[in-house]
Amino acid sequence: MGVCLLRAQRAKLRAKRNPARTAVPLFAPTDFLIPPDLIHVCAGGQTPVPHAQGAALARYALDKSTGPAGRARMDAEVDRLRARLAAFWSVATPDIGLVSSVAEGMSMLVESLDWREGDNVVLDAHEYPSIALPMAMRRGVTLRHVPIMDADAVAAAVDARTRMVAASAASYFDASRPDLAPLRAAADRVGALLVVDYTQASGWLPVEAGIADFAFAACYKWMLGGTGLAIAYWNRARQPGWAPATAGWYSVADDASNEYRSAPPLRPDANRFTRGNPAHLPAYALQAAMDLHESLPRGAMQAHVQGLTTALLARLDQAGIPSITPPDPARHGASVCIAHPRASRIVAAMAERNVLTWNGRGRIRISFHGYNDLSQIDPIMGALTAALAD
């Protein structure tokens, strides 16, 4: 594509943007642990902590300290959280489970499948390690790397030995956002699973998880939770017979025998993902975060953060600073990524100028959330251009 045509397309996208959507933050920055002189734009790495989580953690401490009655409240908190997450992802509560991380959930799924020599998995070369590595560790399984944004390439890559198409709803690497519908169609054509990682999407993008057979998301980024808890979705309508290869006391049915001379019956719902105690402490923290998410109309966060990404992309274009993030909001997430050989030094230099961004894989990643607003674009650009000139 010619430079002039690309610039014309970007200008057209800028014209469609409504600046009023992003002029004020959706969340008060003072409701988070963000110093008043700091611009926090690294939600793609991890988000600041909402002050409300302090009260939630104090409530957990009290419940944990009050014996069996407190334990019943802790378990009820997990059940309530699962129901809220199910509504947030537009699925049924029994289909939502909790794991410690995306890596754990994906590993449980991979270990449960009957892999055979010559099987293959189709995914992007830049897929996140938590999704790719569990399959890369399986002997005899081939990872077929295709540009996941190219639906035709995905359709051409699948065959009778494809067991899975795996994709991130938004890429951690360049913030690209594939259309999941043709990936679903490609998987269905050969009887493969579609597995989606919503880590870089859940919290700003309205999620319709039912398109996937299985889906996961970490909760310490846009979800505003902490580490130690991730969402695991099992589409029981599409995969009714799924069972993990291993179990623990929590993942078996309540009436299971305690002799365990044979495999006991598992819980009938996605609680079978949780082998031991649920992560009660981060569950309480995520409850406070869900209060924030549910205070907004569905789609408001997407409009807000993508108004900021398109504004920043326009400014980068004007300054002649290339980005690897697709300019079309329909094809990018809540981040803007800039590839640079001095990325780590530039990120550190921007932090010295009170702008927190993220580094990794040789790119500067600038990620927006509800506590950001349009007035921060100028200081972000100022810190970036100064750091590039250092």
Automatic annotation (TrEMBL):
<feature type="domain" description="Aminotransferase class V">
    <location>
        <begin position="72"/>
        <end position="377"/>
    </location>
</feature>
<keyword id="KW-0663">Pyridoxal phosphate</keyword>
<keyword id="KW-0032">Aminotransferase</keyword>
<dbReference type="InterPro" id="IPR000192">
    <property type="entry name" value="Aminotrans_V_dom"/>
</dbReference>
<dbReference type="GO" id="GO:0008483">
    <property type="term" value="F:transaminase activity"/>
</dbReference>
<protein>
    <submittedName>
        <fullName>Aminotransferase class V-fold PLP-dependent enzyme</fullName>
    </submittedName>
</protein>
<dbReference type="Pfam" id="PF00266">
    <property type="entry name" value="Aminotran_5"/>
</dbReference>
<keyword id="KW-0808">Transferase</keyword>
